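Follow-up to my post from last week.
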Amino acid sequence: MSTVAVLVEAREGVVTQPTFEALTLARTLGTPVAVWIGEEPAAAEAASLGVYGAEEVRVVAVGDEARLPAKAAAALADATGDAAVVLMISNFVNKEVATRLALATGAGVVVDAAGAELVDGHVETMQTVFAATWNVRTRIATDKAIVGIRPNTTQAVPAETPGAAIVVGVAENLPEARETVVALEPVPAPEGVPLAEAPVVVSGGRGTNGDYTLVRELAELLGGAVGASRDATDEGWISHEHMVGQTGTTVTPALYVACGISGAVHHRGGMQASGTIVAVNIDPDAPIFEIADFGVVGDLGDVIPQAIARIKEVRGA
Amino acid sequence: MRILVTVKFVPDLQSQRSFTEGAVTRTGDDGTMNELDENAVEAALQLKEAAGEGEVYALTVGGDDAVAAVRKALQLGVDHAVHVSDAAVAGSDVFGTAKVIAAAVEKINDEAPLDLVITGMAALDGLTSMLPTALAAELDWAQLTLASGLTVDGSTATIVRHLPDAHETVSASLPAVVSVTDEANKPRYPNFKLIMAARSKPVTTWTLADLGIAPESVGAGAARTVVVDASPRPPKEDRTVVTDTGEGGVALADFLIERGLA
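User reply:
Got it. Predicted complex:
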């Protein structure tokens, strides 16, 4: 079995759910090892990686300098020399890291993958393109493969036999970078589950007229995250971090609820691969209805409170 | 200030399109310049205007129809347009494309040094966002990507980069490759005068031979990834749209409950 390295994503020292998803996928491709770039993990966090099959936790102990993609890629290259496959979570920063790593190692790379499997000794990936209207299967022709995997596309399942999760230090030997991070202003972590990882997303658009009370209430009731259309973030009704779309966050939750969102191509490209799509819009011609499994033509102010009351009623029964 | 902007011809996302033998089939009447490249053109024009002097190049790589992308850039006010067109480029992966663009950048840079290459943050057809990084690495220039703000002070460029966990301010010495987001600026519209002027501006066309690139080092044969299958996502079946006549919320809730989603 060849080595499959998974780049760990941690938030304030805690391993994120998409990392466990990636480890679950890694087990189908070979022998998983986790790569941790940053301060040494707490014992419980290293152990959690073992639960999902990591035989080793390779730690490259570097600080904020690893925020620069060139340095993160160098650290990852040092830790994954023996790996046939390197998996990471597909996000804007990791796409840059993957690109640098591919150039350093000659590997082929696919990002935004919704899955990966071995076919005749090569990694093949599945992804969607053209605003999620086409499915594409790509073969990585090189011996070494790098795959960026989207959150929520593999269900995280603990390994039948846990991995040993032996912590191994990797000497850091980072090159000089041409760029310098001159200021760093942390963004407070969102309350609840992050948008990209949420199993349910409730989004509001122009139809909210800037009032997210109902959207938030429904999101809370369904255990989901709050999203928004570009119209809404452009208006300043809600911060850019909430924007679902091609230049914001791409989401693939089990349930996506679009409230007062017309469904411009920009938005659809960021959510069309969701499991079940539900839309409420006053305009019967809104394009969002073309991709919705269930749509209600009506006023948010009538429909959403009634739906909330009904769900509470049924749950209480 | 001498700036090169890369622009990409992309299919109109609202229109029909298809794959042929693993590559996108595009026709000239349903494509345009990638929308996010308008932000790159705008950033370049603003820097030139602020400096009071300089030249802006628009560069595209692709078949005959790709010239539409640089023509659009000319309409927006760039000074020069370059179209790299060579059958051997077809099927390139991001690394092949970066190699071709880097060679064109170096050819222009040899005439007189460029300060910046500016790109959009992504192309809306594939959205991989890998090209700016690959190009910076190929050129061995600084990489300032996902800029929602860009300033140039003397020989230093500084960007603001909004990431989910932090807002970074990143600086580098010129020359640099910068990619800008749609937060960076509000692109201008072409005006009648510029549209008319653009008609008479020449587009320089280069082949791989002009750039000194061996054809076998790019294109489908050199690509590290191969599309083995592509198909339209099947339309959803069992779609239901109801009009609220007083019970729409209950219907919505019942749908979610029935599917085990609420």
